[in-house]
# Entry
Amino acid sequence: MSRKPGRTSQPLDDVSKAIIEQLQQDGRRSYAAIGKVVGLSEAAVRQRVQRLIESGVMQVVAVTDPLELGFARQAMVGVKVTGPLEPVADKIAEIDEVDYVVVTAGSFDLLVEIVCESDEHLLELISGQIRTVEGVAATETFMYLSLRKQTYSWGVR
# Structure
């Protein structure tokens, strides 16, 4: 999910927050079941969810385990950039195997998560694609050995 630069967000009301929390717990929860919890009709929940999706506040997706789908390697790549960060981040985000790009403060300018089929595929992505992007000065790769926790239910504020 990407956040558009310059997007002004409207504060969410308590009902929208409650709907989001319900879907964070179970993305397949029915609109009728959510409606009972938040005090709206099924149709009203459906409309709210559609508005939340269209506004970019949330998306409803299937979260998968890449290893179970034939991807042998996941890695986080720290990227150091010379010059403006945003064009480099946007160019790297266009790479199909990249599923997460964030501009950071600290040792790296960008953190990039990638999912690959093999170590050879990982090498090609880093050497043949990421490092060839204009403005990339250096990379450091952190290969995932074991996923211990991944959650998307951080609630709403």
About this structure: The first strand starts at residue 73 and ends at 81. The chain has a mean pLDDT of 89. Strands lie at 73-81, 98-103, 110-116, 136-143. The chain has five helices and four strands.
